[in-house]
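In line with agreed milestones, the collection of sequences with tokenised folds has grown. A representative record is reproduced below.
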Amino acid sequence: MPFLARLAEPERVELLGLGPRVGYRARTEVIHEHTPSTHVQLVLGGRLMVTAGSPNGYVALLALRRPGDVVGESAALTGQARSATVTTLEQAECVLVGREAFLDFLARRPDAHRKLSALLVERVRAGDRRALELASSGVRERLALLLLDLARAHSEPTDSGLLLTVPLSQQELAGSVGASREAIVRLLAELRRSGVVETARRKVWLRRPEVLSRIAAGAERG
């Protein structure tokens, strides 16, 4: 459940009143990795992706954020530099709350602070599960898991199958499953030939999700 949806109405109204509303175009970086923490973003509209880069230039897709979510909260709480970059995937609107104002709000509203702490624990556990998936399955299984996860939260039915409504590039799909872009291109081509998916630029339709479920379980190979 997104952070704003967890708050009681008075908490939510107070928090959203602590900063201005800011609109962003698609593919705009709203938080930059390694920079000092000055604010948090409360997402009102649009979806955003959280990424982190390695010294060799590889960029990993860590998470997606949707309306109601908060981004930049970890650095705000610790006072450390940003650990990731946050980029809009589509046109988005956020409320920008300064770090000190955010911390003051949490001090005044201990129940909201507890809800934020619970959210952070859930995100850590999700990260642990993702690390286990990366370590225990192959790229084909991880791609199938990713497509199914995206379908559960970000899809709509069409005549061509379930359309994933998150506009991720092949490189971003690769970064989400810890693979190279070349491996993802090859796997998507195999899935297209088998009639499991359809693809276009930053679009994927799931035509046979039951096959993806078998692949994710390691029950179908080749």
Residues 110-136 form the longest helix (27 residues). Residues 154 and 165 are 5 Å apart (CA to CA). The longest strand covers residues 39-45. The chain has a mean pLDDT of 92.
